């Protein structure tokens, strides 16, 4: 990459370069290069999966792929540019990559006021609650040990990128116990990535009222899990929300809140 700009333009170029580099690291796409002696065809396939957020990576800090990271970037840039008040929150962080990216965006844009809330059990998904959320019974993800990443590991991942500071607040526990009582004043970006009906509706019920007008609600799994879609559709119907749902990629959507 050649840098032949100066002054304010240089700042823009360096910021874009830093953010691209970070996405390449968080997804590990930066390191999936062709090389002599490697099975480059298999690698190309793996790269496509990774880029589009289809695989569960062995090492990368996020599984959401490039398009969804770009979507986070667009939402955060917009709320900063337009002065939409509130913090950023992800519920369902796994190894922390998407939330690390949120904190990095605040850093890159010199935002010194917003917090990043990082909510997870840090022990994977719960067994489906067959009494209250029968929708999830056919989608039991509680046995996937690879989805259980400890708080210490996630904090170490934030630290690896220089993003572990007092602007990052961790909410450890089941969403039903942590989200509603968290001392959050307002949110500019609410990102829900908890897969289940239960996890999605609990996020919306606890936090939707805190999303500022013109803030963003991102649902990672809307087209991935019908249970998640059902939770969103039920919540929107119950609360007469008709803001347009915009598709991000094969799995994810967002909408922009028009009123409080
Ligand atoms: C698919 S992963 C999230 C992926 C992540 N956003 C990324 O950037 O790669 C889902 C996460 O949601 C968490 N989770 C799901 N339901 C939960 C609940 N009800 N309470 C707490 N954590 C939950 C799991 O522990 C897991 O870390």
Question: How would you describe this structure to a colleague?
Answer:
The chain has helices at 8-27, 40-51, 65-82, 97-108, 151-160, 175-178, 197-207, 226-238, and strands at 87-91, 116-120, 168-172, 187-192, 211-219, 246-247, 253-256. With 260 residues, it is an alpha/beta fold. The radius of gyration is 18 Å and the shape is globular. The protein binds S-adenosylmethionine (SAM). S-adenosylmethionine binds at residues 62-64, 90, 92-94, 97-98, 120-121, 124-126, 147, 174-175, 193-196, 198-199.
Please state the structural category.
alpha/beta
Share of residues in helices: 25-40%
Estimate the global geometry from the Cα principal axes: globular
Ligand kinds: S-adenosylmethionine
Q: Total helix count?
A: 8
Give the strand order, joined by hyphens, for the main sheet.
3-2-1-4-5-7-6
Mean pLDDT, as a whole number?
96
Measured distance between first and last alpha carbons = 44 Å
**Total number of β-strand segments?**
7
Radius of gyration: 18 Å
Spans of at least 5 consecutive residues whose pLDDT stays below 50 are none
User: What can be said about the biggest beta sheet?
Assistant: 7 strands, mixed
What is the string of helix and strand elements? Answer: HHHEHEHEHEHEHEE
Strand content: 5-15%
Can I get a quick summary?
Helices cover 38% and strands 14% of the residues. It is built from eight helices and seven strands.
